[in-house]
Design goal:
Blueprint (H helix, E strand, L loop, with lengths): L1 H15 L4 E2 L1 E5 L5 E5 L2 E5 L4 E7 L3 H8 L2 E6 L5 H7 L9 H6 L2 E2 L8 E2 L4 E12 L5 E13 L10 E3 L2 E3 L9
Antiparallel strand pairs: 1-11, 2-3, 2-6, 4-5, 5-10, 6-9, 7-8, 9-10, 11-12
This protein binds flavin mononucleotide.
Flavin mononucleotide binds next to strand 3, strand 5 and helix 2.
Length: 177
């Protein structure tokens, strides 16, 4: 039993050393709308394009995800790092994060949830399925990408990565294939 726990802790520590994932702003909801910072993100299929996010069931965003058929994932640049931090520290159950933190909801093109005007890459997703593996209450919502908007001035080197408590931007390109 003790051996199992040690092995589990080793796995968690090792996983935390994996290279970082992109930071996203999740926007969800139709009449009630909310925006939240997300680090648990993955691409599950390229064609068809299926992405997923992990959300704890204690989040206000979880309630809205349960009520809504879709959501948007919005890639912030480093210019709105403060907004990203605040969206990850306040709950929409107590505060309208769009107006109080200063982000602009834009109508989705193919979904009912909004996207975020300040983000240079917007990904509209229609929910397909959800998976609960019992991980600290995280539920994975997987969905099909139905529309994307990429700003002309989108600069990959300005996107945010989150790694074990630290926000970063990607480092320099070392080699091109
Ligand atoms: C960098 C960062 C990444 C985060 N990633 C997630 C995540 O993937 N899933 C999650 O449930 N919460 C995540 N959080 C925490 C939520 O953003 C935070 O609890 C937020 O206040 C929830 O807001 P809500 O209640 O309006 O949904 C993250 C926070 C930060 C700062």
């Amino acid at each position: 039993m003790t051996e199992d726990i040690k092995l589990d802790m080793g796995a968690i520590e090792a996983v935390m050393q994996l290279p970082p994932a992109p930071v996203m702003l999740l926007a969800v909801g139709e009449k009630e709308q909310n925006v939240t910072t997300i680090g648990m993100f993955n691409v599950f299929s390229v064609d068809p394009t299926i992405v997923g996010i992990g959300i704890r069931s204690s989040r206000y965003s979880y309630k809205l995800l349960e009520e809504t058929d879709d959501f948007s994932l919005n890639v912030p640049g480093k210019d709105i790092l403060d907004h990203v931090v605040r969206c990850g520290h306040h709950s929409g159950s107590r505060l309208n994060k769009f107006s109080e933190i200063g982000l602009t909801p834009e109508p989705g093109k193919r979904i009912r949830s909004p996207s975020i005007a300040e983000c240079p890459l917007n990904i509209e997703v229609k929910k397909l399925e959800q998976i609960d593996r019992g991980d600290w209450d995280h539920i994975w919502y997987m969905g099909k990408v139905v529309h994307t908007d990429v700003a002309k001035n989108y600069d990959r080197s300005n996107v945010l990565l989150y790694w074990d408590g630290e926000f970063r931007t990607p480092g320099p390109v070392l080699k091109k294939l």
